[in-house]
Amino acid sequence: MIPAQLTSAGQPTTGIADVGPTLEQAQELLNWFFPAGAKASNLRWSAFYRISHRLAANYRLGRVFLAGDAAHLHPPIGGQGMNTGLQDAYNLAWKMALDVQGVAAPDLLDSYESERRPIGQQIVERTTKRMNSMIEGKIDEREPIREDSQLFLNYRDSALVANDLVVPENTVGPLAGDRAPDVHGLVRPFTRHQIRLFDLLRGPHHTLLLYTSSANPADDCQHFAELAAALSQRYGSRIQIYAIIHPDCDAPEIEGLPTVVDRQNQFGQLYGPQSGAGFLIRPDGYVGYRADKISLEPLSKFLPRIFRAAAAQ
Q1: What own/partner pairs with CB < 8 Å and gap ≥ 24 does 255-261 have?
Q2: Rounded to two decimals, what is the model's pTM?
Q3: Closest by alpha carbon to 222, among 161, 276, 266?
Q4: 16 pLDDT band (50/70/90 cuts)?
């Protein structure tokens, strides 16, 4: 198929014939992209591909939710459609799962639209602008890999995330609402096999990462264990908790608190945590809550944004 002139809001562009492109037009494209001598023949079907851009006014109406191409259409520049649709689905899926289980906060499902529609609007506007530039012959040779990767989109303005930082302007690493970066070189006690942080995050649960670089990590970990016990009683397996230990510290053995050694110090470098810090990672891989000094009271005030308080399951 041959792209037709960019359309606005899905309206057909004037001047396009009802019939598709001819064999001669297909040959012109072959001459551009294939070695000399390549010849088009035996044309059985052809059509113009009309590029449009649309964005749903709402992603939710009662029990109906829109995701993927049903929520947003845009030019295929940068291959953004599939990634955007997958992230729509994951954002909605973990929230809907909690709601089906009857343990979601009352407004949790509303956050799907408030988080994902602005992202959809960014993608539609950016790809449309780049398509118009290509049609006008203003092609930027620099591939915008950072934008197209979608790794740096964030939900920092969402009501579903929160920071508890001592000096926010000096903070290193991801803030609440940012995508949690992966970390390599983590080691569980009594094993030599290294794992990735994403191995711990994989699944439908939230993951609370508690970090210590203290000269006496047992003190921090004892505090972490008490925090873990209180959260387990309230939320059960919906929150998985791990203590991440600086490589220079001896990993203490604390009952009820899984520990992982940051053998290569990648977590310390990428997340920039103080000793005693905590990161709550959502099932979709974004930081939901970050605290320089994790404690039960402020975390307990945040969690009802996500969960309806209930007995452990």
Answers
A1: 255/225, 256/225, 256/228, 256/229, 256/232, 257/221, 257/224, 257/225, 257/228, 258/188, 259/188, 259/189, 259/221, 260/186, 260/187, 260/188, 260/195, 260/200, 261/186, 261/187, 261/188, 261/189
A2: 0.84
A3: 276
A4: low
